[in-house]
Amino acid sequence: MVRVTALRAIAVAAVAVLVAAAGYAIGRDAPIAPAGPDRTAREALPPVSLNRLDGEVESLASYVGRTVVINVWATWCVPCRRELPSLQILSSRLDPKRFAGIGLSIDKEPRLVRDYLADTGIDFPNYIDASQAVTKEILDVPALPTTIIVGPDGRIHQRIVGERRWDDPSVIRKLEHLAAGRAG
C-alpha cells in the first residue's frame, strides 16, 4: 500500500514537471503579446538617459521617430543569453532609419558586458544600468529578460517578460505594422 502511494506520488510529480516544461516551451516561442493587465499600453516612455558601455551617456530621446525594441538583460541570465542572437538577427533585418534594437544590461561590470557581446558577435547598441536605477525605478522591469516595444510616437506599446524568438517573421511583421502606425 505504501509502495503504491509512493509510486502514484512520483507519477503525479512527473506529470506536473512535464506539463510545466511543455507550458514553458510553448510560451517561450510565443509571438509578441499585448501589455499585461498591470501595465497601461501606450503610456509615454519617460525621459531616460542611459550609460553606454564606453561610459558616455545617451538619451533615449535620440531614438524618437523610430520603433524601438529595448531588451533588458544580463550576462548571467540564461534565457537572456539564449534570446540575444535572435535580437541580433532582428536588428540586422530592420531598416535602421525606422527601427532600433537596443540592449540594456544590468550587469555591474561594463567590461564583462563588452567582452560577452564581442565573444558572441552581438553588435546592436547596448547600454548598462549597473545600479538598476533605470530598470527598476523608471522602466519598472519585473524580471529578466524583459523587452519594451516603443512606437515612433514615443509611447510604450508592449512589455514582454520572458524569452522570445525575435527573428520570427510574425514578430517582424508586427513591428513593421507598428512603425507604419497600424499597431496590431
Keyphrases for this structure?
184 residues, alpha+beta, 5 helices
Notes on the structure:
The protein has 184 residues and is of the alpha+beta class. It folds into two domains: 1-30; 34-179, Glutaredoxin (3-Layer(aba) Sandwich). 39% of the residues lie in helices and 21% in strands. It has five helices and eight strands, in the order αββββαβαβαββα. It has helices at 2-28, 78-93, 110-120, 133-138, 169-179, and strands spanning 43-44, 49-52, 57-59, 67-73, 99-105, 126-128, 146-150, 155-161. Strands 1-8-7-4-5-6-2-3 form an eight-stranded mixed sheet. The N and C termini lie far apart (56 Å).
Briefly summarize what is shown:
By secondary structure, this protein is of the alpha+beta class. Helix content is 39%, strand content 21%.
Question: Could you state the order of secondary-structure elements as H and E?
Answer: HEEEEHEHEHEEH
CATH topology term of the largest domain = Glutaredoxin
* CATH hierarchy class name of the largest domain: Alpha Beta
Give the termini distance in whole angstroms: 56 Å
- Percent range for helical residues? 25-40%
CATH architecture field of the largest domain: 3-Layer(aba) Sandwich
Number of domains: 2
Supply Rg.
19 Å
> How many DSSP E strands?
8
Strand content: 15-25%
Largest sheet: 8 strands, mixed
CATH-assigned homologous superfamily of the largest domain: Glutaredoxin
Apparent shape: globular
Arithmetic mean pLDDT: 83
Major sheet: order of its strands? Answer: 1-8-7-4-5-6-2-3
Total of helices = 5
Q: Which blocks of ≥5 consecutive residues have pLDDT under 50? A: 9-40
Class derived from helix and strand content? alpha+beta
